[in-house]
């Protein structure tokens, strides 16, 4: 699953192709026909565009939900993905987004129990802040008190303005405690 085509989400070559080191036989789920065309040009054989209506994937239902990748001008299209399954917790992969009314609506509509947030407050001059900062994380925590937050996309991009260490301090000041912030290579089960 690739929420959008940017070099911090998938390898990109100078010729515009992506995913050179990946197995081209593994299915790829992407957000729109434009991204699908890039994957096709790159040699991927099974490309699925995830619609807003969603799709069944094994025992889970995947639904594309809106994301806004920039506070000034969006840095291209991006999506979030909601995962629902009768035997699992509802999982919201917010993707590269900032807090805005659609994120609030996604939470209200699906009541996710686990929410993954990209939250290093990465920014570019022309786009503004591209992903969540501590205030956005606090907003999600206030909107979804039932959810465990999974904070990621920290300490891995040059245009980030908040580190893991700083985020912990900022969230402590905001009294946000119900989150996990994995270290490099660490994984968690919910």
Explain what this protein looks like in three dimensions.
This protein has 4 helices and 11 strands, in the order βαβββββαβββαβαβ. It has 190 residues and is of the alpha/beta class. The strands form 3 sheets. The chain has a 7-stranded mixed sheet. Strands 1-2 form a two-stranded parallel sheet. A two-stranded antiparallel sheet has the order 8-9. The longest helix is centred in the middle third of the chain and has 10 residues. The model has no long low-confidence stretch (mean pLDDT 94).
Descriptive terms for the model:
single chain; 190 residues; alpha/beta; Metallo-beta-lactamase, Chain A; 2 domains; seven-stranded mixed beta sheet; two-stranded parallel sheet
Brief overview, please?
With 190 residues, this protein is α/β, with parallel strands linked by helices.
């Amino acid at each position: 699953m690739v929420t959008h085509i940017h070099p911090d989400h998938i390898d990109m070559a100078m010729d515009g192709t992506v995913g050179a080191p990946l197995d081209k036989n593994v299915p790829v789920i992407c957000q729109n026909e434009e991204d699908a065309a890039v994957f096709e040009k790159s040699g991927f054989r099974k490309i699925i565009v995830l619609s807003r209506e969603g799709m069944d994937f094994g025992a889970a239902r995947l639904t594309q939900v809106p994301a806004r990748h920039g506070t000034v001008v969006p840095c291209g299209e991006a999506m979030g993905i909601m995962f629902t399954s009768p035997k699992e917790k509802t999982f919201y992969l917010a993707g590269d987004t900032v807090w805005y009314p659609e994120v609030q609506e996604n939470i209200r509509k699906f009541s996710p129990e686990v929410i993954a947030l990209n939250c290093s407050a990465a920014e570019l001059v022309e786009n503004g802040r591209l992903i969540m900062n501590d205030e956005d994380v606090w907003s999600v925590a206030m909107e979804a008190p039932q959810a465990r937050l999974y904070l990621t996309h920290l300490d891995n991009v040059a245009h980030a303005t908040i580190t893991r260490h700083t985020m912990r301090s900022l969230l402590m000041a905001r009294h946000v405690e119900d989150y996990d912030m994995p270290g490099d290579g660490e994984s968690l089960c919910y």
